[in-house]
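Hey team,

Filing this mostly as a record. A colleague (T.K.) asked me to run one chain through the structure pipeline before their review meeting, and I want the input and output archived in the tracker in case anyone asks later how it was produced. No errors, nothing strange. Just documentation.

Input sequence:
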Amino acid sequence: MPQFEWKGVMPAVTTKFTKNDTLDLEMFSTNIKAQLDAGVSAIILGGTLGEASTLTAEEKKTLVEHTVDLVNGKVPVILNIAEQSTKDAVAAAENAQRFGASGLMMLPPMRYKATDYETVAYFRTVAQNTDLPIMIYNNPVDYKIEVTLEMFEELLKHENIQAVKESTRDLTNVTRIKNAFGDRLKILCGVDTIALESIVMGAEGWVAGLVCAFPQETVAIYKLALAGRIEEARQIFRWFLPLLELDINPQLVQNIKLAEVATGLGTEYVRPPRLPLQGEERERVLQIIEEGVRSRPELPDYKNI
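Output structure:
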């Protein structure tokens, strides 16, 4: 089984498109290189931010293979699994392994609101059919299914279920999980606006969104917090918060792609039915981004902490 550590900043990267709605691998590569230069720990493909629901199987294959080639063993490449049937989820996991991914992030069944028993059976079946390590994405706010401690008790019988992307938005859950499972279940914060607090409370990592546009600042916060330099981390986080709030919004993809344009790391093209922001909302988001770029903090030498 491929082994890597579930820790550090793991960007859930956006998928770059051309104006003709094809994959823009050139701009995608520019962004990935910036992530690697900043010191991220992994690359996560095909998440919500990656517009996974609109990607074809062939496009996912292209993205994984291109990213694996690009990172050249520096960091693991993780593919998100978000399927409607267990059979499709197993097939997606098998494909991910074949394409060269080193790990999986897994959502519960899509569209159908599965019971606790059904959700555990779904995750278990996929875990039994892949050697790849798995991070369960626990986001009851957006996906209406919560993976409880009792459910994790069952799931952790499978050695390759190793981490949780903790997106319940309940900060006390970090402590609850640590009290229940110690280091057996690694915690990665999945909500940008409480990432610093989650790291301070013991989360091993951060599956980040605004990192797509601001990779250095994101990794700096993580490294400073881990080193106990909380005041320095807090000052950067205070600057970052208005931008981070763009992640907890139904138009998070459009918001973050607009931020990527401002920092030279992306384009605004999204795949319909998503469309670029319009009118007053666009102006509001642009103001936040422009102020963030104008007042970017000077960072310490965080890579050598």
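Quick notes for T.K.: The CA atoms of residues 43 and 77 lie 5 Å apart. The two ends are 31 Å apart (CA to CA).
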